[in-house]
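Marked as duplicate of an earlier ticket. Keeping the data here for the record.
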Amino acid sequence: MLIGSIPDSVISLVSMVVASRIGTEAVAGTGLASYLFFVMNAVMSIFMVGLLVYCSQAFGAGRRDLVERAVGESLLAALAISAAVLATSYIWLRSYTEILSGGQEGVSAVATAYLSFRILSIPALMVSSVLASSYRAVDMPWIPAYSSIATGVSSAVLIPSLGLGYLHLPRLGVEGLGVASALSQYVGLALYAFFKPPFKLRINIFSRTILKVLAIGFPASVERVVGSLGQNIYINAVAKSGVKALAAHNIGLSIEGVLINPVFAVSIAASARVGQRVGSNEFERLDSLVGEALKIGISWMAVATALLLAISPVAGSFFTQDPHVAGLVTVYLVLAAISEIGFGGSLALYGVIRGMGSTWVPLAVNSFTVLVLRAALAQVLQPAYGIYGVWFTQITDMYGRFAISYALYERFKSKLLVKLVR
C-alpha cells in the first residue's frame, strides 16, 4: 500500500514542475483546481472506507459471497455517481473556481480550463477506488499498487509531453495537463484487466448489502465533505494573501505530499487488519495492532519532519524563479514539518477506529479540528499575520486531532466495536 501511494506524489510533483514552466498563474490555478478532488475523494470515501471495512470483516468471517456482492453493488454505484458528476459539471464548474480563487480572474480561468479536461478522470477514479479497497480488504494489495505505478509512469510521460509539447506532441498548456491527468487514470484502471481477480467480479443490482456499505462509508464521506469545506475555507484564506502566497502554498503542498502520502497506507492497512480481526472475533489482538500502527505512523512522520526541515531552504527554488515565492515555500515547509507527527499519529488511530466499525468518531474529531482549529482560525489570523498565520493552523489542526482521537480510543475502546458481518 505504501508503494502504491508513492505515484500519487510523483504525479503531483510532475504537474507542479510543468505548471511552473508555464507560469505563476498556472501553478496557482492548477493547484487551486486540485481542491475539487478533495470533494471527489469525499464521495469516494464511501468505497475507500465503507467497502474496505465491510469487506475486511466479511473476509475475516470467511464470507467471500458477501465480499463479491458488496463489490458488485459498489461498482454500479460508482458508475452512477460518476455519470451524474460529468452530466452536471457544465452548470457549476466555472462558478466553483471563481469562488475558490477569491475573485482572481486569471487564476480562475486557468483552474476552469484545467478542470474541464481533468474532470473526465472521475469514472476511472471511482471504479479504481472500489477495486483497490476490495483487493486490499482480502490481502491482495499489490494489484492496486501496480495500477498506481502504471498511473504514475503514464502521468510522468503524458503531463510534460502534452503540457509543454514534448515527444513531437502539441503544446497544450494547462489544458494538456488536464488531458494527461485524465488519460493516465484510465491507463491505471486498465491494468486490473491483466490480473485474475481474487473473487468473482461483476456488477450487481442494489440490495441491502449496499445499504450496509453506505452506512459504514457515509460518515467517512461526510468527514471528507466537512474536511473539503474546511480546506476550501482555508485555501480561501491563502488566496487572500496573494497570488505568490497561493503559488508557494501549492508548491509546498506538492513537496510535502511526497513525504507524507505513505502514512495514508498505514491508516488503510490498520483498517483492513483490524476489520479482519473483528470479523474473526479476535478482539484481544486489537491493542497490539493499535501500538504497531502508532509506532509506524509516528516513526514515518518523524522522518518526514526531518527531511522537510532539511530541504526547506532550497526546495522552493527548484519550482520557481521568483525568490519571494521560494522564500515563502521555505516557511510553509518548516511549519508543515512541525505538524507532521500529530498527523501520523491521528491517521494511525483513525485507521484502527474505522476498522472497528466506528466511522462516526473520526468524523466528529475531524469536523471540529478542521473547521475550528484550521479553517476558522486561518480566517481570523490572516488579516493580522497574513500567510504565516494561515499556515500556522496546520499545527493546531494536526495535534488537536491526535490528542482527541487518542483520548477517545483509550476511554471508549470497548464501545467502539461494531460487528457488520455475522
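See parent ticket for discussion. Residues 360-412 form the longest helix (53 residues).
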